[in-house]
Write a structure and sequence with these properties.
The complex is a heterotrimer of chains A (576), B (238) and C (315).
Chain A: H1 3-8, H2 11-14, H3 31-35, H4 40-68, H5 79-114, H6 123-145, H7 159-162, H8 167-194, H9 207-239, H10 252-285, H11 293-306, H12 322-350, H13 359-382, H14 384-390, H15 394-424, E1 426-427, H16 430-456, H17 475-507, E2 509-510, E3 549-552, E4 557-560
Antiparallel strand pairs in A: 1-2, 3-4
Helix pairs in contact in A: 4-5, 4-6, 4-17, 5-6, 5-8, 5-9, 5-10, 5-15, 6-8, 8-9, 9-10, 9-11, 10-11, 10-12, 10-13, 10-15, 11-12, 12-13, 13-15, 13-16, 15-16, 16-17
Chain B: H1 5-10, H2 26-61, H3 63-69, H4 75-100, H5 104-134, H6 168-200, H7 210-234
Helix pairs in contact in B: 2-3, 2-6, 2-7, 4-5, 4-7, 5-6, 6-7
Chain C: H1 19-50, H2 67-96, E1 103-110, E2 113-117, E3 123-124, E4 127-130, E5 134-141, E6 146-150, E7 155-159, E8 165-170, E9 175-181, E10 194-199, H3 204-216, H4 220-232, E11 257-258, E12 266-267, H5 270-278, H6 301-313
Parallel strand pairs in C: 1-5, 4-10
Antiparallel strand pairs in C: 1-2, 2-3, 5-8, 6-7, 6-9, 9-10, 11-12
Helix pairs in contact in C: 1-2, 4-6
């Protein structure tokens, strides 16, 4: 086995002296060594490739949708094609990209390293999760070829039971992807419970682990309900079981309850790990201990638990009783408080820090700005009276894109840039990274801010054509054009971001073990880490004791201070 | 009963067989596995939870459909199946005990009996399904009852009042719940058969019996779900 | 970029009695959100500038937790959201609680048309209402879920097959407003745009009488044409072309002999057409699927007769 090979390479010996000869990337060769690997780091890398591919695919669908909307009436496609495009954009982005995004890529890579373990608890289950993701992706590709999908990503009945498009393959794809997500969740919970390094008590875990733990709770508890909902939908189409069909006495709104019981918690699957990434990044790049550790940790769990009780706010206009609406609205507001707590704690962490504007921090700041807008506009939608007006308009589209793109995606990019030196052993060009962050920030705002205005002025979502509304709203076209220009700008930004990262793989400088000065355990092993992560099980201390590390210009990285907190000036890296 | 000694020798002294490289002790590995299994069972409960929820909603809205339609189900066959499954849970628990006590013969026997019980359960289910099929008592979209006067399985309409609307929805729920449960029985049989083969090859011992234990947990859950399904579907008052 | 005349930057003009409740809550939330957003961004910018990393300067010592601060920034937002929630709930109850007496209009949504039926039986694809009078909409769907949205009235309610949903409003200013579908319903979702016409005092009843008389005086074929355009055209063409995923064209079918997936062939006559409208699943024409739902209770006998007369005329 590999025991001896990895054992010979102690992390300390590789510290700061460039990529070690034997690391997880070079440990074995060939396609089979990747496809059948049980190494969490390789699985994370394969997830990364697949997920970025899905993101690009979903992005192309988005660009086509935005292009169609530049002019009223037909622009580049037919009505049906448009309906397929926005459905596939939503389905690919949500099921293939953003739900697995941070947990399966960054979580898989970082979690065992963060808790000082050699792997996740169930490496085979982890590989199964990746394969299920691939199978799910294949189902979506099949969907594209056998009639597409035009139900909207929400699969609302009875439309989804009678449309001739390929609902069954898409539903099976979502079902399989659901199990991929469940397996990841089970793995993370067991890993966090059973594989923490000595000394790592619950409250010495990095906050990213808390966020992944909270996420895993949702993945395990909510996703099975999506599974059964999708099976019922398939049974409805194939066998006519009538549970959701009024023709047989069924209730189509029951489907919405089932669907949102999963899909509302699912938005926390998307955003919670992102918040965890931001907690790490803000502390490290401010050179400060995270402020309010316990409150951030508890708020993650609170969001996970509370998130299960608010699904009804997607149905305020579907005829629910005022009592139910009142309860769901009140619960929805209470779930906003933990998010607010996090934001204030991040700001307090920056206070009196030594803030570097390295790329991950640029994304973290963009996150605060964009998630601020996304979160606060949620208040409009949780408020019962304003939701009646804003529901199913572009306001909702703008709100969730600010949260999903401005929140989850930006946090994903923050984490990707943060751990990139660890994943690849290479440093990307800092200036290009910062430019990518700036362009993405501008693109997202330009794309989605006009949509708030469109929505509150009465533009319904999922509209192919707005010619019928232009009489009273000539402004709609200008707003749509602005939004579309923003979409193109975002496309350019993503090209810059991905180009910078890909370039670094081939031309990047070798990364030191600890390029940013993080105090969490992953920075104690070499970049990239050896096959077995840690030759001997490390001992965990305070994950945010960043002041124990000082910058060493000789290796362009951080090393542990020899004497605790020496007086006098300390050198700083120059990536801002 | 134990692994071949050659395999033992290949491992480092402090790393027993069956211990994956990322665990420190067998105990840690067992506990992680058990936690994982329990988490999986939680997902299973929520998976069925959706159907129980649909059941609750429709029973609350249309109690008359449930009272009327449950007479079409055969209580006796349901009771037999309940007994069979509970017995199989007992043999499965016994199998775990045998594994813990290094009783290979007992382990194989218990697993075999469990497998047979599962087969009997599915056989009875097949009889029930085929009766429903013959009488057209299928889910909503295919619900076309065949009137056969004098047939006890199909003629409760006189004594139980007028047929309410949308009776098919009961059979939709019946087939979905028992069908999904049946699939879980089939899956369980596959796993038990696999464990049986491993047990016959002497793969388990008091040191290493986690797969038997975890399979037993799963099997108890399958049993437990049936114990809820039986009264909810077959034994509806008044 | 300019807003609609009479509205604010964010919202269309207030044209119903309940719109002000929505707008009050909207502007309250807008104010609170803007304040907190600016606060967050300002702090962020100040911190980044003030505490930017400089050579030779490390981070200053400062505490890493403060229960007092945590409680402050939990309780203040909590208090604010309680206020927002209350205002929102109050407005919602105003929107949802219909007055005892209201002028009732039956709304039928189908792919991809709205039909409004007035108490005298007259049907119109546009919603005409008197000003300053409560109007109750009783809504049903022919096929999938739709949602009726009148931005100027801040009004939205889903229209769900298999049940009736109701909503109400009182228009406060005569004029014309947009009415759209906001629940995605397929190909022509964005075609379900029509208008609300609010008539000045005393003008609604005369309009309705006149419109009804005109409709009554139509020859059966013309009345049938109107109905087909309104109710059938999204699935059945009248020029011999095939609507994608729709039913057969009406052109020339009268007198033809059709074959079915089950049962003997049948000549298309009046009785067969009537059966196809009222019980469409009974016989499915070969090459088509069972997609149409019944119009029983949707159309009167007279209307069905008019439709049949029109189909006969399509040679």
């Amino acid at each position: 086995m590999s025991q001896t090979a990895a054992g010979a390479l102690t992390p300390e010996s590789a510290d700061g002296s460039g990529p070690p000869a034997d690391n997880y990337l070079t440990h074995a060769h060939g396609v089979r060594s990747w496809l059948f690997t049980l190494d969490h780091k390789r699985i994370a890398v394969m997830y990364l490739v697949g997920i970025l591919g899905s993101f690009v695919l979903g992005g192309v669908f988005a660009l086509l949708v935005r292009t169609e909307l530049i002019r009223p009436g037909p622009t580049i496609m037919s009505k049906d094609m448009y309906n397929h495009m926005f459905t596939l954009h939503g389905a690919v982005m949500i099921f293939l990209f953003i739900i697995p995004g941070i947990p399966a890529v960054l979580g898989n890579f970082a979690l065992p390293l963060l808790v000082g373990a050699k792997d996740v608890a169930f490496p085979r289950l982890n590989l199964a999760s990746l394969w299920l993701w691939m199978i799910g992706a294949v189902f979506f590709v099949v969907t594209l070829h056998v009639g597409g999908l035009d139900t909207g990503w929400t699969f609302y009945t009875p439309y989804s039971t009678e449309t001739p498009s390929a609902v069954i393959p898409a539903a099976l794809g979502a079902f399989v992807l659901g199990f991929s997500s469940i397996f990841t969740g089970i793995n993370f919970i067991a890993t966090i419970h059973k594989l923490r390094a000595p000394g790592m008590t619950w409250f010495k875990m990095p906050l990213f682990c808390w966020a992944l733990y909270a996420t895993a709770i949702i993945q395990v508890l909510a996703t099975p309900v999506l599974g059964i909902t999708i099976l019922l939908l398939a049974a409805e189409r194939v066998l006519e079981v009538g549970i959701f069909n009024p023709k047989w006495g069924g209730d189509p709104v029951l489907f919405q309850h089932f669907f949102w019981f999963y899909s509302h918690p699912a938005v926390y699957i998307m955003i919670l790990p992102g918040m965890g990434v931001i907690s790490e990044v803000v502390a490290v790049f401010s050179r400060k201990h995270i402020f309010g550790y316990r409150f951030i940790a508890y708020s993650s769990v609170a969001i996970a638990v509370w998130g299960f009780l608010v699904w009804g706010h997607h149905m305020f206009t579907s005829g629910m009783t005022p009592l139910a609406a009142m309860i769901f609205s009140a619960l929805t507001f209470s779930v906003s408080i933990p998010s607010a707590i996090k934001v204030f704690n991040w700001l307090a962490t920056m206070y009196k820090g030594s803030i570097s504007l390295a790329t991950p921090m640029c994304y973290a700041l963009a996150f605060l700005f964009l998630f601020g807008i996304g979160g606060l506009t949620g208040l409009f939608l949780g408020t019962l009276s304003t939701d009646v007006h804003l529901h199913d308009t572009y306001f909702v589209v703008a709100h969730f894109h600010y949260v999903m793109f401005g929140g989850a995606m930006i946090a994903f990019l923050a984490g990707l840039h943060y751990w990139w030196p660890k994943i690849t052993g290479r440093r990307y060009a800092e200036r290009w990274g910062q430019l990518g962050a700036l362009l993405t920030f501008l693109g997202v705002n330009l794309t989605f801010f006009p949509q708030f205005i469109l929505g509150s002025r009465g533009m319904p979502r999922r509209y192919y054509d707005y010619a019928g509304l232009l009489d009273r709203h000539p402004d709609f076209q200008q707003l749509h054009v602005l939004s579309s220009i923003g979409a193109y700008l975002t496309a350019v930004a993503i090209t810059v971001v991905l180009g910078t990262l890909i370039h670094s793989v081939f031309r990047g400088r070798p990364a030191p073990a600890n390029p940013w000065g993080g105090a969490t355990l992953e920075w104690q092993c070499a970049s990239p880490p050896p096959y077995d992560n840690f030759a001997s099980t490390p001992t965990a201390g305070d994950p945010y004791a960043v002041d124990e590390f000082e910058y060493d210009p000789a290796i362009d990285g951080y090393v542990r201070r020899s004497a605790p907190n020496p007086p006098g000036p300390c050198p700083v890296p120059s990536h801002d | 009963m134990t692994e071949p000694h050659a395999a033992l020798a290949a491992q480092p002294a402090d790393h027993p067989p069956h211990l994956a490289h990322h665990f420190d002790t067998l105990r840690q590995q067992f506990e992680a596995g058990k936690l994982g299994m329990w988490l999986f069972l939680v997902t299973e409960i929520l998976f069925f939870g959706g159907l129980f929820c649909a059941y609750a909603v429709y029973r609350a809205i249309h109690p008359e459909i449930f009272v009327f339609a449950h007479h079409y189900l055969d209580k006796n066959l349901g009771a037999v199946n309940t007994a069979v499954l509970i017995f199989s849970s007992l043999t499965m628990a016994w199998a775990v005990r045998c594994a813990q006590l290094n009783q290979r013969r007992g382990l194989v026997a218990c697993l075999a009996v469990t497998l047979v019980c599962a087969g009997v359960f599915l056989g009875v289910k097949y009889v029930e399904y085929s009766q429903k099929w013959q009488h057209g008592l299928l889910w909503a979209g295919w619900f076309k009852p065949v009137d056969e006067p004098g047939d006890p399985a199909n003629a409760p309409s006189g004594e139980h009042g007028e047929q309410p609307r949308d009776v098919g929805i009961f059979f939709s729920i019946y087939f979905l719940m028992t069908g999904l449960h049946g699939l879980h029985v089939v899956g369980g049989m596959g796993v038990i058969a696999w464990i049986l083969v491993l047990a016959a090859r002497g793969r388990f011992s008091s040191q290493y019996y986690a797969p038997v234990d975890f399979t037993a947990l799963y099997w108890h859950l399958v049993d437990l779900i049936w114990i809820f399904l039986f009264p909810l579907l077959y034994l509806i008052g008044p | 970029m300019l807003a609609e005349a009479g509205g604010t930057f964010w919202l269309p003009p207030q044209s119903s009695s309940t719109a002000r409740y929505v707008d009050a809550a909207f502007h309250l939330v807008l104010g609170i959100s803007t304040f907190f957003f600016l606060l967050i961004v300002a702090l962020m910018v100040v911190f980044v500038l003030r505490y930017r990393r400089r050579p030779g300067v490390g981070p200053a010592k400062s505490p890493s937790h403060s229960t007092a601060l945590e409680i402050t920034w939990s309780v203040i937002p909590l208090g604010l959201v309680v206020v927002i929630f209350s205002l929102g709930f109050y407005g919602y109850m105003e929107i949802r609680t219909a007055p005892r007496t209201a002028y009732e209009i039956l709304v039928t949504a189908q792919k991809w048309k709205w039909t409004f039926r007035y108490p005298n039986g007259y049907e119109d694809p546009e919603l005409h209402v008197p000003v300053d009078e409560p109007v109750r909409l009783v809504m049903q769907s022919q096929d999938v879920i739709h949602s009726l949205f009148i931005p100027a009235f801040r009004l939205k309610m889903d229209v769900v097959p298999g049940r009736y949903t109701t909503t109400w409003f009182r228009a406060i200013a005569p004029g014309e407003y947009d009415l759209t579908c906001t629940e995605y319903c397929g190909t022509g979702h964005s075609d379900m745009v029509t208008k609300v016409v609010v008539h000045a005092p005393g003008e609604f009843e005369p309009w309705l009488r006149k419109a009804d008389e005109q409709a009554q005086s139509l020859a059966p074929v013309d009345a049938g044409r109107r109905l087909v355009t309104q109710r059938c055209a999204s699935c059945h063409s009248v020029d011999g072309t095939q609507v994608p995923n729709g039913g057969p064209s009406f052109k020339g079918i009268f007198g033809q002999t059709h074959t079915f997936t089950k049962g003997p062939p049948q000549v298309v006559d009046e009785n067969y057409l009537r059966e196809s409208i009222l019980d469409p699943s009974k016989r499915i024409r070969e090459g088509y699927e069972d997609r149409m739902s019944t119009f029983r209770g949707q159309l009167t006998d007279k209307q069905i007769t008019n439709i049949i007369e029109y189909i006969k005329s399509l040679k």
